[in-house]
Amino acid sequence: MAGGREELKLLGTWASPFVIRVKLALSFKGLSYENVEEEDLYHNKSELLLKSNPVHKKVPVLVHNGKPVCESQLIVQYIDEAFSTDGPSILPAEPYQRAVARFWAAYIDDKLFASALQAGRAKTEEEKAEALKQTFAAVETLEAAFKECSNGKPFFGGDTVGYLDIVLGTLIPLAHVGEARFGIKLFDGTRSPLLEAWVERFAMMDAANAVLPEVDKLIEYSKAKQARAAALAAAARN
């Protein structure tokens, strides 16, 4: 655990995949922190958030002894470096392997997450089909990346969870929601058998299970968010 003089606050919302990512890193490192839930990011952002992230005004933000760190991937890297003696290492020790891990982490957000998000927001069936095509192509690319990075071991990090496991692990709840609501299976035994097995292993770990939100709760949140967006769109047309 972090020393008694260490103060950690996490500004976020429970359903945000990027906030979940930071929670996963904190959990695997065994760090205690104060969870500060932002109740209304649309209309009433807290003064602490606006002060801590004045550029983007977004969550997550990790405040360590009064100093804010923003952007989920950077926060995970910071946690690993600032608390190097707490819990297992997240990033690889060897510089080249660290660079490889950071490359694939960027790919996960820029390609996989971005195209999946685009599919969810598509306004036409054609747009949705194209976005899903890009999403599944990214999954297949990550399947090959997992095979290379893991070297036949259970995780991207090898025998233990590493940086890429945490970065991709944040998408597991969203994948379950997509399957339950829309019948879209992100990871399956045909297209990505290695990643399908990885999802089961990762989600069963105590440190992950303690953080990943309940799928049913996320489904209700997703439905409410969709209904709110539809109501706002209807109001704008009238």
UniProtKB/TrEMBL annotation:
One of its GO terms (molecular function) is glutathione transferase activity. Gene3D superfamilies: 1.20.1050.10, Glutaredoxin. The keyword Transferase applies. Its main location: cytoplasm. Residues 114-142 form a coiled coil. GO terms for biological process: glutathione metabolic process. It catalyses: RX + glutathione = an S-substituted glutathione + a halide anion + H(+). Residues 94-227 form the GST C-terminal domain. Residues 6-87 form the GST N-terminal domain. This is Glutathione S-transferase.
